[in-house]
Prior knowledge:
By secondary structure, the chain is of the alpha+beta class. The chain is built from 5 helices and 6 strands; from the N terminus they run ααβααβββββα.
Amino acid sequence: xxxxxxxxxxxxxxxxxxxxxxxxxxxxxxxxxxxxxxxxxxxxxxxxxxxxxxxxxxxxxxxxxxxxxxxxxxxxxxxxxxxxxxxxxxxxxxxxxxxxxxxxxxxxxxxxxxxxxxxxxxxxxxxxxxxxxxxxxxxxxxxxx
Length: 145
């Protein structure tokens, strides 16, 4: 993983401060890694952070990811049967394509057509604020094998 450029580091520092979080090396490293590698698992994030910073505990990385999820700096997606994945693209309710074989995950901006529906026929009193759609299949590399 490459070291973020000065403007990127300044932007990341501002993101942290705007959510009331202290700027720390592990937090900057997690933001940088997820910016370069969206849809990474916690283990992948931890490995990348260790490449950048050296010794960082897995628990510290999980703590950063949990705080970032709570403050909407990152989004946690949980495709069925797959480890949770994290991305910095938040607040736009986009969807995902997931490869059944290798787990590669890609963003899908919009769902078109009549199905699946994104408005439930009843809410049972819930205040619905998000719809999550995951498309499953094989990525181009796995499909060509």
